[in-house]
Every structure is written in C-alpha cells, then in structure tokens.
Design a protein that fits this description.
The protein is mostly beta strands. It has a domain at 3-17 and 42-62 and 95-160. The protein has one helix at 142-149, and strands spanning 3-5, 10-12, 24-25, 36-47, 61-63, 68-71, 82-84, 91-93, 103-107, 123-126, 138-140, 157-160. Strand 1 and strand 2 (10-12) form a beta hairpin. The longest helix has 8 residues, at 142-149. The radius of gyration is 14 Å and the shape is globular.
C-alpha cells in the first residue's frame, strides 16, 4: 500500500486500481488508472466549506464551488488543470455528492509541463469508508488528511511507492 509522509507523519492509504502490487513509474501514462510512483510536490488544497471548516494548513487553500472541475481530456489545451463548469471537454467534477473530495490536495504530477495523456487529476483525498482503491489518486481517512494538512506547506512533497 502506498504511503504518504512528511518529516513527521506517515499515512497508509489506498491507491489506484492497478497500483497493487506496484505503482506505475512516473513516465508511464495513466490510462491504466494506476497511481504514479515517485516524489511529487503538494501544490494546493481544496475543501468543502458546506461540510467542514477550513483546515489549518500553510498550503494555498480554497473552498470548492459547485462549478469546479478538472480537465481529463488529453486533447484539450486545459488538460490536467482546474476549470469552471460547464466546460466542453471531458472533465472530473470536484463537487461530489459523496465525501471523497471534502478535502483535496493537488499532487504535482504532470504539471510542469503538462504532457497530454500522461495523467491528470492525481490528488490526495478522503478515502471511501471501505478504503477501496481509487482511480489513480491516494486516499486516506478524512481525519488523518485534516491532521496531515496542518503539517503541510510550501515545499511539502509526497513520496508514492509500491
């Protein structure tokens, strides 16, 4: 199981469906829905203000809006970036009915420069109650993620390994 860690915290959590037994190398595409392996910066965080108070963190933090989305269409020039919905290309809706995206940390995978088809929307977010696999992200219990956010700030990274 992949592990997220800071200098003082380690949190086991589920990863992408095909992340077991090994996460995929950073250079491979996300079409297999596997979690990328490597060390990546943690860029910013989002939270659902209608469900919880703003968490303490030194990361850039914003409340999600019902119109927030993330482009997952590699043919679109905004691939792997946040957009305002409605948006014409294929996208993931960040405002979900379930609690998975009540807290989100954007993992800096395929962000500079963005390579179409390499992978999009790789987040650290809240786990399902049964801790079932994600679609390529890392998920931890909401309380653990809220606590972890308090340790994060500019320069924080996540190391994802098999």
């Amino acid at each position: 199981m992949p592990v997220c860690s800071t200098k003082t915290a380690r949190c086991p959590g589920p990863a992408g469906r095909r992340a077991r037994p090994a996460a995929r190398p950073e250079s491979s595409p996300t079409s297999a829905r596997a979690t990328p392996a490597g060390r990546f910066p943690l860029l910013r965080a989002f939270y659902r203000a209608d469900r919880l108070a703003a968490p303490a963190t030194a990361l850039p933090l914003a409340a999600l809006a019902a119109s927030d989305g993330w482009v997952d269409d590699p043919r679109d020039p905004r691939y792997n970036t946040q957009v305002t919905l409605p948006y014409p290309a294929s996208h993931e809706r960040l405002w979900r009915d379930d609690a998975l995206y009540d807290l989100i940390v954007v993992i800096g995978y395929n962000t500079g420069p963005v390579v179409p088809g390499k992978g999009s929307a790789i987040f650290l977010h809240c786990a399902r109650p049964d801790f079932s696999p994600t679609e390529g992200c890392i998920a931890v219990a909401r309380d653990a993620l809220a606590s972890l956010l308090g340790l994060l700030g500019p320069g924080s990274t996540i190391t994802i390994r098999a």
